[in-house]
Amino acid sequence: xNNYLSDIKQITHEKYQELIxxxxxxxxxxxxxxxxxxxxxxxILCSLGTGSKxxxxxxMNEQNHCLHSCHAEVIAKRGFQLWLYEVFSKPxxxxxxxEKKETKYSLKNDYKVCFYVTQPPCGQAQLFPESKIYGMxxxxxxxxxxxxxxxxxNCDSQRLRxxxxxxxxxxxxxxxxxCCSDKLMIWNIVGIQGALLNQxxxxxxxDNLIIEFREHFSLKQVxxxxxxxxxxxxxxxxxxxxxxxxxxxxxxxxxxxxxxxLFTHSPYHPKNDELNKRINKDINQxxxxxxSYLYVDSCGTExxxxxxxxxxxxxxxxxxxxxxxxxITKFQLFQKFKNLYYSFESKQLLCNYREAKNRNIKYLxxxxxxxxxxxxxxxxxxxxxxxx
Length: 388
Hints:
By secondary structure, the chain is an alpha+beta fold. The chain has one domain (3-384). 28% of the residues lie in helices and 17% in strands. It is built from eleven helices and 14 strands. It has helices at 3-19, 72-88, 91-97, 180-190, 194-197, 225-229, 233-237, 273-281, 330-345, 353-358, 361-372; strands spanning 31-38, 42-50, 52-54, 69-71, 98-101, 104-107, 111-117, 208-212, 238-239, 242-243, 254-258, 291-296, 300-305, 310-311. The longest helix is centred in the first third of the chain and has 17 residues, at 3-19. It starts with a helix and ends in a 16-residue tail after the last helix. Mean pLDDT is 86; it is low at 278-288.
C-alpha cells in the first residue's frame, strides 16, 4: 500500500478515537472519510462520518428537515460538501485547491480524492454468496420496499436497493433512500459535489476507493454503472447522440482493499467474528449505536442522533427549531449555497431547494439517463425538498 494510503487510515482512526474518548461505545461502528492527497504526500482529512442507521419514514416530514441517512458514507460525503462551502467562503482558500476553467472551478490536478470506509458499503457490495463472513445484506430492491415479506437473498446486480432494514421492520420505520453501494455507483458518474455546487464546480470524482475487506474477490463491478446496468457509455453520458457535458464521465476509482491494521471497532474485524455471526441473524443488530459523528476540517465536530436525524441531546422544545439541525442537512447546506450564490451573482436566490437543483439542467439530464438504465429507482421524496 502507498504510504499516503496508510496515512489516511491512521489519521482517520486517530480522529475517531479523539471523537469517542469520552463515549461508551460498543465494538460495532462503521467509519468513512474523504481526504485530499496533494502530490501523493500531504494528506488533508476533509470529512469523517460514523454510523450505520437510517431515519425511518415516521421521522421524516416537510417541517423538521432531519438528516435522512446517518450511514458513515453519506455523512462523510455531506461533510465534504460542507468543507467545499467553507473553502469557497474564503477567497484566499479557493486558489489553494481550485483553478478556474472557463466558467467553473476544477479541483487542481495536484490532488487525489480518497474515500475510505471500514467495511463494504451496504447493498450490492455486501451481497456475497461466496462469503462466509458477511452474509446477505438486507438492502431490498425498491420494487419490494413496501412488501412485508422475509428478506430473500437476491444478488441481481441490475436491481437498485434501499437502505437495509430487517424484514420485520414496520414500513413506516424503513428508509426510502439508496443504499450506499448504489450511491457510490451514482457518485462515480455525477461526482460527490452535488447538484447545487456543480453549478460553480466541475464534478469531483473519487480517485481511490479504499475498503477494509477480508475477502479475496473483487468488488469492481459493484460500483460500475455499465457492468450493473448492461448499458453502454453513450446511454449514460449522451442525449440524442450529443454529450450532456464534457465535464461528466464514468469514473472508475482505483479499488484498494486493506487487510492489515483493520478498524478495531468494526464488526468485520477478525476478533469480532462471533459478533458478526449474530449480526447475520438480524441485520438490525448491526446498528446498535444510536448516534453518529461528523467531523469536517475547519468546521469541527457534531454528534447526531441517528434515530431521528437531528442533533444529539436536543430538548423537545428545540426539535422544530431550524438552527438546531445538523450542519449537513439539506436545509443547512442550502443556506450555504444561497450565500455562495449571492457572492457569485450579487443577487438573492429566490427559489426553493428543489427549484435550485433543477436549474442545473445538465446534472438533471444525467440523473435521468442513469434512472433509465435500471428497472427501479428510489422512492420520490420531492415533498421534503420544497423548503427555502
